[in-house]
Amino acid sequence: MKEKLQSIREEALKQIHSADMPEKLNDVRVRFLGKKGELTAVLKGMKDVAAEERPKVGQMVNEVRQEIESILDETKKKMDEKIREEKLKAEVIDVTLPSKKNVVGHRHPNTIAQEEVERIFVGMGYEVIEGPEIEYDLYNFEKLNIPADHPAKDEQDTFYINKDIVLRTQTSPVQARVMEQGKLPIRMISPGRVFRSDEVDATHSPSFHQIEGLVIDKNISFADLKGTLEVFAKELFGPETKTKFRPHHFPFTEPSAEVDVTCFKCGGKGCRFCKGSGWIEILGCGMVHPHVLEMCGIDPNEYTGFAFGVGLERIALLKYEIDDMRLLYENDIRFLKQF
């Protein structure tokens, strides 16, 4: 029995000294000291030992156990210290190095411009309503007084999914959907992305953004439209801004107008920015056509209204003096960081 215990001791010490990681030390502990370990097996075989020899054998087993446990604990402690020391060396921090900057993103120029426009109109009691980008031809054209054979449809030639479904060319379909609900009066703006079959250049893109407004109520006149857009222009471009209305034609409004504002660079005197005219065109507008009201279930004899639409990119280009629309979509961080 003594020789067997000596053999177990020597084998355990050999494996402890050859272990190079804590997991192997744990394997040694389980093999020799565990419930099914070799020393436990020796104790279970005590029934075969003579009664007068059992105390001596039990003492020998305990001595071997204590020695193995002591060496295991000591070896593990040294191993942990060595691992911690190597880890500290690997993770050393040079306090003289510059710290890493926490780069936080910010809003896109289009988003900044849209939020500014929304703030102005919400302040005047308008509601912001969005609609689907994939729209029925019925809402995108028919209900806006643009039948299948109308020339304006060619001007807005767009991307068709089939003969009845298109990628919307304007956000006006949202207005038609709201008018159909019959909840009057209406004061709303509808921002969103629109699509037209345009070539990409400094001022055009097949995908861009619009913000359109609509007011429907009793006794609404062109004077209300002019007053609203004058307040909008002053809030957006400055209190000294003046507005000018030029007659125009839109199928869904009558009468219709294009709106110019005094150049905010030169104050209307004429400069390179406004091409010497002193004025900058910003949007189109007009009184809602009676036929549009009828098609949306509103009595034109009782209700009138006005509508207007502005290109969001145009607002951003003017407000931040950007000379190429493509810069807004190239995602060049050097450009976007300026806003």
UniProtKB/TrEMBL annotation:
Its cofactor is Mg(2+). The keyword Glycoprotein does not apply. GO terms for molecular function: ATP binding; catalytic activity, acting on a protein; magnesium ion binding; phenylalanine-tRNA ligase activity; transferase activity; tRNA binding. Its main location: cytoplasm. It comes from the Bacteria. Residues 117-330 form the Aminoacyl-transfer RNA synthetases class-II family profile domain. Gene3D superfamilies: Bira Bifunctional Protein, Domain 2 (3.30.930.10). It is found in: Cytoplasm. This is Phenylalanine--tRNA ligase alpha subunit. The gene is pheS.
